[in-house]
Amino acid sequence: VMTATVALILGSCLILGSLGKPSFPEQEKDPKFWNTWAQQTLKNALGLQTLNQNKANNLIFFLGDGMGVPTVTAARILKGQLSGQSGEEGQLEMDKFPFVSLAKTYNTNAQVADSAGTATAFLCGVKANEGTVGVSAAAVRSQCNSTKGNEVTSILKWAKDAGKSVGIVTTTRVNHATPSASYAHSVDRDWFSDAEMPAEALQDGCKDIARQLFENIPNIDVILGGGRKYMFPKNQSDVEYPNIAKHSGTRKDGRNLVAEWTEKMKDSKGHYVWNKQQLVTLNPNMVDYLLGLFEPGDMTYDLERNSETDPSLTEMVDVAIKILKKNPNGFYLLVEGGRIDHGHHEGKAKQALYEAVEMDRAIQRAGLLTSVHDTLTIVTADHSHVFNFGGYTHRGNPIFGLAPAVSDVDQKPFTAILYGNGPGYKLVNGGRENVSTINYQENNYQAQAAVPLSSETHGGEDVAVFAKGPMAHLLHGVHEQNYIPHVMAYASCIGQNRQHCLQHNQASSLRPTLSSTAALLAAIKLLF
């Protein structure tokens, strides 16, 4: 019934309203439509009273970097409009998850967080200072000598130690803030390679993040993303962009980390790839370890991606899961839609929202490749942005379109999407730019901002946490962000809290014994 109801909504033609009034599907005028839909939703909700308390063999964590609630809503509308609907009534894949909670994102020393301190929270289970990854709040940003003794380990390591396969997939550099907190301990998120580190930090024994990717947790099974230049010796020409200096290797220590990895993995079904063709032609059954670095820096925005040479996030997730799921002990996979954040920082809402829609496609693909019976999947953001949309827009208004009325102060039109601050602030002849004179639908259009900044800032409000699968119901209400990996570890019997697993295993091991005894008693009865 639910599917039929949604199909009715999504399949409806928008009936044109008279006198310029907003148009919407005709059946929405009938109270029965809304009552029937709500009753079906209620029936589905009552079915959730039977909780999924299975053990989570697999853990998948999707992180939309900068994907605050306004971004989720706008991405939902965009996804619907891309399929010819008005958008508001549609559903993202994450919208279909049965449990949703809110996470408080502040860092120990910041009211409005950054991606490094937050990544430490949702991967290591400990809140931390902004700018630091894989270290507690006792560590001080950029002070190398505050690292030692303050390292904290991540759920990726807990999973690896428990015998699971582990993977990292990102659209940013693989040594960027979010992924790096899963394997590195660095007091500065910007220490991508030794070239970005101060001499003092190197003398004090601190390691760059790219090096830690290969040295801290041996044999991470799948690593896919950008960041190629940080793995190669300084000035070594890039394979895809030869003789373009900004894409050349950066390493001062002369090491070729890719060559070292390839040599180490040559007898272990290890493969290194750097373009889409190499990735999609792999047979996952013949690959146990995969390193894919598809760009010298971050991967390109999905709107600008060369679909012949660069894989999408969905394509990377597809290959990663097919490799990881071969392990009978299960897997942990971190997936980052990392450039949602970059689009917002640049004031380019169209880039950001298309990135969010692509991550939603990847969530769908992961769902098709796994089962809610044994896979806990969580989707969340590290922080929000000062992005929003409003202006009393009519139903079905193009998400990148104009508000229906001009400003009653300066008599100029304005886009529904606006930023609180950022590079979109612009004065023309002493006043706000008239957006009707420019192409505000363009991919790289920078939406107007109230305060001029070269880079738009993060937002400080709570973010949504969507969960499905074993123990997903533990993500409810409002919690600190660092609570998330504790739930994931509990659900999969890894990390520090495993007492319930021992009890569960003992209970399970009793069952065959009892059934054997029952069979023996039945046989004795037959004999006598």
From TrEMBL:
UniProt: Zn(2+) binding residues: 65, 341, 345, 382-383, 458
Main location: membrane
Signal sequence, renumbered to the chain: 1-20
Gene3D superfamilies per UniProt: Alkaline Phosphatase, subunit A
Membrane-related topology note: Lipid-anchor; GPI-anchor
Gene Ontology CC terms: plasma membrane; side of membrane
Catalytic residues in the record: 115
Any GO molecular function: alkaline phosphatase activity
EC number: 3.1.3.1
Catalysed reactions, semicolon-separated: a phosphate monoester + H2O = an alcohol + phosphate
Key words of the record: Cell membrane, Glycoprotein, GPI-anchor, Hydrolase, Lipoprotein, Magnesium, Membrane, Metal-binding, Signal, Zinc
Domain of life: Eukaryota
Names of the cofactor(s): Zn(2+); Mg(2+)
Binding site for Mg(2+): 65, 176, 178, 336
Family annotation (Pfam families): Alk_phosphatase
InterPro entries: Alkaline_phosphatase (IPR001952), Alkaline_phosphatase_AS (IPR018299), Alkaline_phosphatase_core_sf (IPR017850)
Compartments where found: Cell membrane
Entry's cofactor comment: Binds 2 Zn(2+) ions.
GO biological process, any: response to mechanical stimulus
Family to which this protein belongs: Belongs to the alkaline phosphatase family.
Assembly and interaction partners: Homodimer.
Protein name, UniProt field: Alkaline phosphatase
Organism (species): Tetraodon nigroviridis
Source taxonomy: Eukaryota, Metazoa, Chordata, Craniata, Vertebrata
